[in-house]
């Protein structure tokens, strides 16, 4: 693909991304009432539109916790967790592929040190390290996706680790959206426990110099 064609495609994506945010086109993905309406009415085309909006929403780096909250409200804690995790993972895949196809040369020119730092940190045991990276409640989700897309990190372990690492936060916020009365006590306790354990792991790893270097590289452009 020619250089100017890539630039043109990126410009179109940037305009589309700006429009979706400016005019609120992806807000339906985080609207509890809209999600609940389509879920109860079995409107398949409408539901697919919401799912697509959710993927774009996550690909643009918007707060995934809000999506999980809305999904929990509309679908319940279990389905809300599953759906929001799948949407977030698809959003990460979209950002990863768009970056690799269109932005990689430019990012390698302007962010080579950040890309190299992340690639060195997760080159071995990519699945596990990406999962842990997702568990840490710091840094930019969008920047992580873009750095991964611009690096030589393989897509399959990146997405697998991301999906597994997303689950604790998606579970907790889906439970919050569903409401204490709707969610079962044991499930709520499980979600809080998983979140607490993941936060503890994140703090421990963040204190290590190698992970601190990687996280600083991911977060400094936030």
What topology does this entry show?
Elements: H1 3-22, H2 32-41, H3 44-59, H4 64-75, H5 77-110, H6 112-122, H7 126-135, H8 141-150, H9 155-178, H10 185-207, H11 209-219
Helix pairs in contact: 1-5, 2-4, 3-5, 4-5, 4-9, 5-8, 5-9, 6-11, 7-9, 9-10
Describe this structure in words.
- There is one protein chain.
- By secondary structure, the protein is mainly α.
- It contains 11 helices and no strands.
- The chain starts with a helix and ends with a helix.
- The model has no long low-confidence stretch (mean pLDDT 75).
Helix % is over 70%
Overall geometric form: flat
Low-confidence stretches: none
> Per DSSP, what share of the residues sits in E-state strands of 2 or more residues?
under 5%
- The DSSP helix count reads 11
Short description:
With 222 residues, the protein is mainly alpha-helical. Helices cover 82% and strands 0% of the residues. It contains eleven helices and no strands.
List keywords for this structure.
222 residues; single chain; mainly alpha; 82% helix
């Amino acid at each position: 693909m020619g250089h100017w064609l890539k630039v043109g495609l990126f410009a179109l994506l940037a305009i589309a991304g700006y429009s979706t945010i400016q005019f609120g086109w992806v807000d339906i993905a985080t609207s509890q009432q809209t999600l609940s309406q389509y879920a109860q009415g079995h409107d398949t085309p409408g539901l697919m539109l919401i799912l697509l909006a959710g993927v774009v929403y996550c690909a643009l780096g918007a707060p995934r916790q809000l999506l999980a909250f809305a999904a929990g409200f509309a679908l319940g804690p279990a389905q809300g967790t599953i759906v929001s995790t799948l949407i977030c993972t698809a959003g990460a895949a979209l950002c990863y592929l768009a970056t690799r196809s269109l932005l990689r040369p430019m990012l390698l020119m302007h962010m080579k040190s950040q890309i190299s730092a992340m690639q060195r940190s997760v080159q071995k045991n990519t699945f596990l390290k990406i999962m842990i990276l997702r568990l840490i409640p710091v840094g930019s989700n969008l920047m992580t996706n873009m750095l991964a897309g611009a690096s030589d990190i393989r897509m399959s372990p990146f997405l697998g680790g991301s999906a597994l690492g997303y689950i604790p936060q998606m579970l907790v916020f889906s439970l919050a959206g569903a409401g204490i009365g709707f969610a079962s006590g044991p499930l709520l306790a499980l979600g809080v426990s998983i979140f607490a354990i993941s936060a503890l792991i994140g703090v421990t790893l963040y204190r290590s110099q190698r992970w601190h270097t990687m996280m600083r590289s991911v977060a400094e452009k936030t």
